[in-house]
Amino acid sequence: MSDWLAPDVIASAPGRVNLIGEHIDFSQGFVLPFAIADRTYARIRKRGDQIIRIRSAQRSNDIITTSINQLAPGSDGDWEQYVLGVIWALGIQNGVDIEIDGHVPLGAGLSSSAALECAVAFALNNLFACGYSLKELALLAQKAENKYVGVPCGIMDQSVSLMAKSGSALLLDCRDLETRLIPFDLAASGLQLLIIDTQVQHALVDGGYAQRRQSCESVVEKLAIVSLRDLSYSELEETKNLLPEEEYKRARHSVTEIARVLKAVDALTNKDFTALGQLINESHRSLRDDYEVSCPELNCAVDTAISIGAVGARMVGGGFGGSAIALVKTGEIASIQSAIKEAFARSGFDVPRFFTSLPSDGARIEPLT
C-alpha cells in the first residue's frame, strides 16, 4: 500500500472458489464455496465534506473524484463503480477517501468483484458504525452489483467473502442465507485443489450471464413456481414439452446442480473423495453442455487433468473464461500442471497459471499501517 492516505480503518475480503453449485444461487439453490487466501484490501478515511475520492494501488496515478450527491445507478465508469455502488447501497452520507489494493486475480472466475465490494462494505460498516449483520452486508453488496453496476449476480460470492471460515467450505442456502460450515481437509487425505487460471478474461457485463439467468426466470414463470429450487428432476421431465429446448437445458443444469451440491456435502462428510470427484466431473459436463458457459481453454484444462489422473475437475465461476479446479493427489500436481501446459501450447492457447489455496477466513478488519 502507498502513503496516499492515513486510513481510519483497513478491511480485507477474499476471493473464492466454488467447489460445486455453479449458476444456481439466483435460483435459491445450495452452493458450496470456500474463500481463498488472495484478498482485496480497502483503506478508508472519513472526510469533512461529501467528496468521494478513490484510488487503486495498482493504478496509483489515477484518482477518481465524485461526491455523495452524484451517486447514480447505471452511471458510466470502470472498476470504481463497484466501490461507489457499495457506498450508495449502504446509504453512506459522508465523504470518504478510499484506496484499494487488490490481490485476487482479475477475470479468473475467482470473484474479484465480490472481494472488492465486501472489503469496502466491511470497512464502511465498521467506520460509520452502521450495525449491519454479515447477511445484511452480503445483500447490500449484491444490491450494489445488481442495481448500481448492472450485473445480475446471485448472492453466493458476497456471502462467502464475508462469512467464510478457515478450514471449511461454506454450505449456503441461497433462499434464506442460512450457512453451515463443512470441514474441508484435503491435506489429511493426501489431496489438494489445484486452481488453473486459463488467462482467458471474462466479463459478466457482456450479457451471457444475464441471458442465462433470464432463461431460468422464464422457466419459473412458465411453470408457476417460486424458483428452480422447487422443481424436481422428474417434474422438469414431465413439463419438458412446455419449454423451448434452450430453456429446458438451462433448467436441467440448475435442477441437477442443486442436487449435486447436497450429494457433495454427504461425500465430504464421509470423506468419500472419489464420489466428490465424480460429482465435480458431472458439474462440468452440465455447465459445458446444458448451461453452455465453458470455453475451449476450460475444456482443455478439465479434460487434460482428468486424463492424467485428477480425481475430479470442472470450470468454476461465471464461465466464458476464467479458471478451472482439479482435485488431485498431492504427488501428481507437477505432472498434471505439465500436461495442461503442453496441451495449451499444442492448441495455441496462452500459458495458464496455477496455484493452490487452503480454505481461508472471510472479511476482517486489519491492523492500521
How does the helix and strand content classify structurally? Answer: alpha+beta
Q: What shape does the CA trace take? A: globular
CATH architectural label of the largest domain: 2-Layer Sandwich
CATH topology of the largest domain: Ribosomal Protein S5, domain 2
Percent range for β-strand residues = 15-25%
Distance linking N and C termini: 9 Å
Helical content class: 25-40%
Q: What value does the Rg take, in angstroms?
A: 20 Å
The CATH class of the largest domain turns out to be: Alpha Beta
What are the secondary-structure elements, in order, as H or E?
EEEEHEHHHEEEHHHHHEEHEE
Write down how many β-strands occur, each being a DSSP E stretch of 2 or more residues.
12
Tell me, rounded to a whole number, the average pLDDT. Answer: 94
Describe the biggest sheet? 8 strands, mixed
How many distinct helices?
10
Q: What number of domains? A: 2
Poorly predicted regions are: none
